[in-house]
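Model the whole thing, not chain by chain.
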Amino acid sequence: MSDVKKIAVIAAGLSQPSSTRLLADRLTEATVNDLRARGVAAEVTVIELRDLAHDVTNNLLTGFPSAKLDEAIAAVTGADGLIAVTPIFTTSYSGLFKSFIDVLDPQSLTDLPVLLGATGGTDRHSLAIDYAMRPLFSYLHAVAVPTGVYAASADWGSGGESTSSTLPARIERAAAELAALAAVSDRSDQVMDPFALPEGFSPVGSFGAQ
Amino acid sequence: MQFGIFTVSDVTTDPTNGTTPTEGERIKAIVTIAKKAEEVGLDVFALGEHHNPPFFSSSPTTTLAYIAAQTEKLILSTSTTLITTNDPVKIAEDYAMLQHLSDGRADLMMGRGNTGPVYPWFGKDIREGIPLAIENYSLLHKLWREEFVNWEGKFRTPLQGFQSTPRPLDGVPPFVWHGSIRSPEIAEQAAFYGDGFFANNIFWPKEHYMRLVSYYRQRFEHYGHGTASQAIVGLGGQAFMRSNSQSAKAEFRPYFDNAPVYGHGPSMEDFTEQTPLAVGSPQEVIDKYAGMREHFGDYQRQLFLMDHAGLPLKTVLEQLDILGEEVVPVLRKEFASNRPADVPDAPTHASLVAKRDSALAASAATDAAAV
């Protein structure tokens, strides 16, 4: 197992700077700190989906990623831990966020520890993490940590003290949950063989006989 | 080395003037295009199979037989024949018939088809695409090689003492290519049988196909059909040419921008950078395709897509003139230079008959020696 764990961060905010990126950075910092406390170094790759918006659309249309998008996909699918943060638009993750997920191989996030984060104007949408994001990652067989972190605009003006309900406390708890799983992940060491044949495959058939 | 064209048989509106050919016009145009391919010295014409508009080619052997009757040397092939949803018994019969009528100028390329509804329309399940391709081909292979076939599988009714007719011409089945975009199972299948492998690489970056072709070559050697460099490889291509680069780009751009498959996506410049598409002068096309063997090794068949996206017939015929007169002769020379002597050409009916006869002679000699 490698000594350095790879953490990928997806920030799907559309404005620059965005509160989505702000939350992603806070979650990343907390996760890296927690890993360090466990004696584990982290290598972080941050992916701002805004920079890849055209590439994502082109991939949806042509079926293949540009070189730039391919790098981002490799960073996400080969990570030991993923921090996925999206703004909540019209009750759910943003279209760009979902489009990026849609160009991934559905098998490629299997067993990946994921911290779910979301931002929005008011806290009325905080459950979107649990009714929209969590099922998405469950379908992909990723391992979403129990604590999701939702930050409404008002959270950025709340107190910094660590009572259990504040944003900093939620960030700390979620980051600790992700770090615990990423610290023992060996996903980034795995070699994916794109030509691996399914078990029991025979070039002459016998599918029916078995 | 064989050069030719392949078509997906789309009926598409010309984006420069809004006109759409009728099915009848496109069907007649395809025959004209195929005859033009022979006239300009190309070797192969391959036609697709589809079962939904805007495509017209649901029955390739009918069209190919009609073309065979009007040509002398052109090899008629498919791109592709649906091995998943067609009954392999009917494929065996239809293509053996085409083989006879064309005097052995027929081969075919197996494909799974990626139009979801076609599977249920023909009573199949798309999730069984690979198992269907594997089992159906195994039956087809047998039907062409054994006189009376007893067979039982998962996907079709069993056969007892069945003989498909007509028997293959001279007792030698048509050569088969297996087309694939990404499935290693199909590369494995092609390698197992020692059949050809056609990587239709026109819509995706070459790196992916380089790995897929290399995998097929290794497995071809593994199964004892020859060395990896002797495996039978075909590649797709796509080009639009005018005497100067700027005119070619300006004329092709509206067709590119509105084309089925990749239109309204990446810029033409990005797409030509990432895929085999070449838009420019004949020399630019020559340069791009002469480099293909550096990526894929010496190969046997190069097919170009020349007639899609609503290009008018007149333009397509002009393109074939340029391809046949200015591009392919140079590529033939380029590909012949430094080509190792032990890399075979694509199998033809004549070469397969000769191979069969020499194998028979050799075993007769062995038997005689044993006596």
